[in-house]
TrEMBL record:
Single GO term (MF): D-lactate dehydrogenase (NAD+) activity
Top-level lineage group: Bacteria
Annotated source species: Altericroceibacterium spongiae
Annotated protein name in UniProt: FAD-binding oxidoreductase
Signal peptide limits: none
Length: 541
């Protein structure tokens, strides 16, 4: 980038557009709304006029007051570098096409969101100031659920709650797989971000089948079998013919996805959730080595969560109940508070699915292995009305729960939180070392280490939530610095994030190497020469 980082450019844009925005608006909220860098306010006004003619006045938000909800995010943004210029909410694919035409004409960048609830990573806010949020929540039809194949085709605004209600209403014998705040987020947005859940269908992109994408030039691509004349297999067969294109539209900015196919899990006759309690912080190595073979041979079929005690406490409690010092909460304090609540330092949630006979055959094998690792294997009967057990038992059957939102209240009232999610191979020594490093860095910045490990097949997503008080500018700045150091130092060891907050997309993209960035840039230039879809997303464009 010619010696300038994108951050430098964002800063320049922030200053320039703040001036323009304050010229344009005489509102007490001046400065919270940004125009794209280098965009003249008359040009912006002309674009807005055209957008209004497409979707109607009510669905274009271009003044400071009506865009407040789009500015809201939990991540640290001490310099105000990630604020939209407004939002536009189309109701159809045709309107999306017409909007992209205007975006190309005026070079007005569009940041697509489905429901915009990407909590740990920036909500609806864009990767640089002035992008217009392309809010797809009005496109919320469940187009089809095939009761024989257990497949669904949905629009962007369909939430997990919508689909849950649909399945109940039509008495369909399928389960969903939800991320932690499932009821309010979209199936499409979470899958495009390659999010995870906690049933056997936990890897959402793995269970995705077929997409409809509006490309930046307005043309429509249906992936997989979707473009075949009279196709009956769009949601049944993922791979189609020739290069597999769906991946290009996940964690990317090459198109607007307007329909997505998903597979639904057949509801099992019997479901049995478990929690395994381990007492010590460094048990994470043993836990990982115990789970790995069971995930590889699928005796444990679901997306397992290994929950750290501090994270568990933060869901239902506030920090000041246990610790009011400035420095990180010490392990012994966490351990004591966890024990009082029936929790260990690590609490591993897995489940068995099938028939009584199947579960009776596999449970003793898994129990034996966990007990040999020093864990106590507990069931619903043992855990009684533990809210933690209940929460995870709900997630592992794809149920609706919003309880994890509680973690934004852990520290102060300002609601600050950002996630760092480096990947580790499922070999005990590696997560053990990651935990030590994360604790060291977070300790240096006086934040609490509140982790979870989400176990895939052969790897773990180490989910580290940095919780801070966003109403405290000093803390917000410190949170941003801590995040940068964590990403950098983990990256030096080869541990990179699988997903990133909008504020650190370049930093992470760099860690994946020059060739990777160049290929993405070439694809971007070919598909989106005017760079109008989500510039900066995943460090592209
Ligand atoms: P959630 O379902 O968690 O609310 P979001 O709507 O916030 O998800 O979307 C998460 C991210 O995925 C967005 O920031 C955007 O980069 C991308 N995204 C969401 N919807 C689309 C879409 N329809 N087409 C292309 N990218 C999208």
């Amino acid at each position: 980038m010619n010696g300038f980082s994108r951050r430098d450019m964002l800063r320049a844009g922030a200053v320039g557009s703040a001036v323009m925005a304050s010229q344009a608006l005489a509102s007490p909220l001046n400065g919270t709304r940004m125009l794209p860098a280098e965009m003249d306010r008359d040009v912006f006004a002309a674009a807005i006029k055209e957008l209004r003619s497409i979707v109607g006045n009510d669905w274009v938000f271009a003044d400071a007051q009506s865009t407040v909800s789009y500015n809201k995010s939990f991540i640290p943004d001490p310099e105000g570098l990630y604020l939209p210029s407004g939002a536009v909410a189309p109701a159809s694919v045709e309107e999306v096409q017409a909007i992209l035409k205007v975006a190309n004409k005026y070079k007005l960048p569009m940041w697509p969101v489905s429901t915009g609830k990407n909590m740990g990573y920036g909500m609806a806010t864009p990767a640089s100031n002035g992008q217009m949020v392309l809010d797809l929540k009005r496109m919320n039809r469940i187009i089809e659920v095939d009761p024989d194949l257990g497949t669904a085709l949905v629009e962007p605004g369909v939430t997990y709650q919508d689909m849950h209600d649909y399945l109940e209403k039509h008495n369909l014998p399928f389960w969903l797989d939800v991320p932690t705040v499932g009821p309010i987020v979209s199936m499409l947005g979470n899958t495009l971000e390659r999010g995870v859940g906690y049933t056997p269908y936990g890897d959402h992109f793995m269970f995705q089948c077929g997409m409809e994408v509006v490309l930046p030039d307005g043309s429509i691509l249906k992936t997989g079998m979707g473009s075949v004349k009279n196709s009956t297999t769009w949601q049944a067969f993922k791979w189609g013919y020739g290069p597999y294109l769906d991946g290009l539209f996940t964690q990317s900015n090459f198109g607007i996805v307007t329909k997505l196919g998903m597979w639904l899990m057949p509801k099992p006759p019997v479901y049995k959730p478990f929690m395994v309690r381990h007492p010590d912080a460094d048990d994470i190595g043993k836990i990982t080595d115990t789970i790995r073979p069971f995930r590889m041979n699928n005796l444990i079929p679901n997306g397992v969560l290994i929950m750290g005690a501090a994270y568990q406490l933060a869901m239902f409690h506030r920090r000041e109940e246990f610790w009011s010092e400035e420095g990180s909460i010490p392990d012994d304090v966490v351990k004591k508070a966890a024990a009082k609540n029936g929790l260990g330092m690590w609490n591993t949630y897995f489940a068995l699915y099938g028939t009584d006979e199947i579960i009776a055959a596999t449970e003793p094998i898994i129990r034996g292995a966990f007990e040999a690792s020093g864990g106590e294997v507990l069931t619903e009967e043992d855990m009684g009305d533990s809210p933690w057990f209940h929460h995870h038992a709900t997630l592992m059957r794809g149920g609706m729960s919003l309880e994890e939102i509680g973690i934004v209240r852990w520290r102060g009232n300002g609601g600050g939180m950002v996630a760092f999610a480096p990947v580790a191979p499922a070999k005990g020594e590696e997560p053990k070392a990651q935990t030590v490093l994360a604790k060291e860095i977070m300790g240096k910045y006086n934040f609490d280490y509140a982790p979870a490990y989400a176990v895939g097949g052969r790897e773990l997503h180490h989910i580290i939530f940095l919780m801070f008080d966003k109403s405290d500018p000093e803390q917000e700045k410190r949170a941003a610095q801590c995040m940068e150091e964590m990403i950098t130092r983990f990256g030096e060891k080869g541990w990179c994030a699988y997903r990133s907050s909008i504020s650190t997309m370049d930093l992470v993209a760099d860690q994946y190497g020059d060739t990777n960035r160049q290929v993405n840039a070439r694809l971007k230039r070919t598909l989106d020469p005017n760079n109008i879809i989500a510039p900066g997303k995943q460090g592209i464009g």
